[in-house]
Amino acid sequence: ENLLPSAPANEPEAPSSMKPLQPPSASVPIIRKIIAQMESEDGWVPLGAVGTQLANLASDFDPRTFGFRKLSDLVRKTNAFEIDRPEGGTLRIRIKPEAARRGG
Question: Do 96 and 80 form a contact (C-beta atoms < 8 A)?
Answer without folding.
Answer: yes
